[in-house]
């Protein structure tokens, strides 16, 4: 596939969980797309649905409490277009895609890696499963991947256990595992969590170098807007399970339309500016108890209007790919920002 070709279309994706308190709408009618060779950043506070969106794309929603209840995840792979939501999460068809054509780096590499198996065994398992190589060939491939992510003495490191690796090395091993089958799409869920600034920069530079080398697309999930500014081509801002704004990185950072996106940007401390750090009042609503028919951000929004508390906002589009789920941008009625 050529750079710029469409790889993924997520259309009105909804993922719910059954809990003792009722139905939790973790992802509520979220839409976005991903093209070959680009990076999409997904940002928002903890609990806004970023990770569940990624797991829904991978068809890894925890069963039986969780389920994808609506929408489509259309993957345009080498074998044509398939709807991932139509596959059972343990089906043969899904296993051919997951880990092979779409891979994921999970949060906390120490808990993602099995402590009783060597790094080599865990790398080789995916290679033998998807690439159908023998053990000797898979070991050689695993060593090549460790070298590719700049881990020294890769042959020796294959026989080490996760606890013998530093945090940065474990993250590199996770990247090597995710990229071992040359995926079309890499989903990185908080890939630099708990790493110091120097190691974080090394990991991000490594991911960009590998993206340029392999031509893959990346979905970067993080709460760090600085990472998004340096990595992403486009941004999806999520709040309480909704996709509230979707645009290019430049549009979101310089001309944000949703009050939540604006508030997130204002909360970033600026070097050389001495002033009280801006915060967003209140907290994300409890999605177990929330009912539709209003804007979930309204209780925390300084620009909320009466309609925000009475009716859920639709998604407006400015015809330049900048979409926003907010009554302040009701182009159908005013053609301009309401005030």
Furnish the topology, listing elements before pairings.
Layout: E1 6-19, E2 22-35, E3 39-43, H1 50-57, E4 66-77, E5 80-83, H2 92-97, E6 102-105, H3 109-112, H4 119-131, H5 135-148, H6 154-157, H7 167-179, E7 185-189, H8 197-214, E8 217-221, H9 225-231, E9 234-239, E10 242-248, H10 249-254, H11 259-266, E11 316-317, E12 323-324
Parallel strand pairs: 3-8, 3-9, 6-7, 7-8
Antiparallel strand pairs: 1-2, 1-4, 4-5, 9-10, 10-12, 11-12
Helix pairs in contact: 4-5, 5-7, 7-8
Describe this structure in words.
With 339 residues, the protein is of the alpha/beta class. The chain has helices at 50-57, 92-97, 109-112, 119-131, 135-148, 154-157, 167-179, 197-214, 225-231, 249-254, 259-266; strands spanning 6-19, 22-35, 39-43, 66-77, 80-83, 102-105, 185-189, 217-221, 234-239, 242-248, 316-317, 323-324. Helix content is 30%, strand content 24%. Helix 5 crosses helix 7 (167-179) and helix 7 runs parallel beside helix 8. The radius of gyration is 21 Å and the shape is globular. Residues 333-339 have low confidence and may be disordered.
Q: Any key phrases for this structure?
A:
339 residues, alpha/beta, eight-stranded mixed beta sheet, four-stranded antiparallel beta sheet, 30% helix, 24% strand, disordered C terminus
How far apart are the first and last residues' alpha carbons, in Å?
Answer: 45 Å
Taken in chain order, the helices and strands follow as EEEHEEHEHHHHHEHEHEEHHEE
Number of strands: 12
Spatial order of the strands in the main sheet? 6-7-8-3-9-10-12-11
Largest sheet: 8 strands, mixed
Strand content: 15-25%
The overall average pLDDT, rounded, is 89
Rg, alpha carbons: 21 Å
Are there runs of 5+ residues with pLDDT below 50, and where? 333-339
Helical amount: 25-40%
Backbone structural class: alpha/beta
Number of helices: 11
Shape: globular
């Amino acid at each position: 596939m050529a750079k710029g070709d469409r790889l993924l279309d997520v259309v009105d994706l909804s993922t719910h969980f059954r809990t003792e308190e009722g139905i939790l709408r973790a992802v509520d009618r979220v839409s976005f797309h991903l093209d070959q060779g680009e990076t999409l950043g997904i940002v928002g506070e903890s609990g806004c649905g970023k990770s569940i969106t990624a797991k829904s794309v991978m068809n890894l929603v925890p069963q039986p409490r969780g389920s994808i209840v609506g929408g489509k995840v259309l993957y345009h792979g080498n074998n044509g277009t398939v709807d991932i939501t139509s596959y059972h999460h343990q089906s043969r068809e899904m296993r051919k895609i997951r880990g092979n054509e779409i891979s994921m780096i999970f949060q906390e590499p120490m808990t993602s890696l099995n402590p009783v198996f060597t790094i080599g065994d865990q790398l080789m398992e995916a290679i033998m499963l998807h690439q159908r190589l023998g053990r000797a060939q898979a070991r050689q491939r695993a060593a090549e991947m460790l070298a590719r992510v700049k881990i020294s003495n890769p042959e020796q490191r294959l026989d080490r256990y996760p606890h013998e690796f530093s945090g940065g090395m474990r993250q590199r091993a996770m990247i090597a595992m995710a990229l071992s089958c040359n995926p079309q799409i890499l989903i990185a869920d908080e890939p630099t969590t708990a790493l110091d600034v120097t190691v974080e920069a090394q990991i991000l530079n490594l991911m960009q170098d590998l993206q340029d080398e392999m031509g893959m697309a990346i979905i970067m999930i993080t709460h760090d807007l600085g990472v998004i500014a340096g990595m992403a081509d486009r941004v999806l801002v999520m709040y309480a399970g909704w996709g509230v704004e979707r645009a290019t990185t430049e549009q979101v950072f310089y001309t944000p339309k949703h009050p939540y996106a604006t508030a997130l940007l204002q909360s970033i401390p600026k070097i050389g500016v001495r002033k009280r750090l801006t915060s967003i009042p209140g907290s994300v609503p409890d999605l177990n108890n929330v009912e539709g028919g209003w804007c979930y951000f309204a209780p925390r929004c300084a620009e909320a209007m009466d309609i925000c508390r009475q009716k859920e906002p639709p998604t407006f589009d400015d015809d330049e790919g900048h979409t926003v789920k907010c009554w302040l941008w009701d182009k159908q009625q005013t053609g301009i920002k309401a005030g």
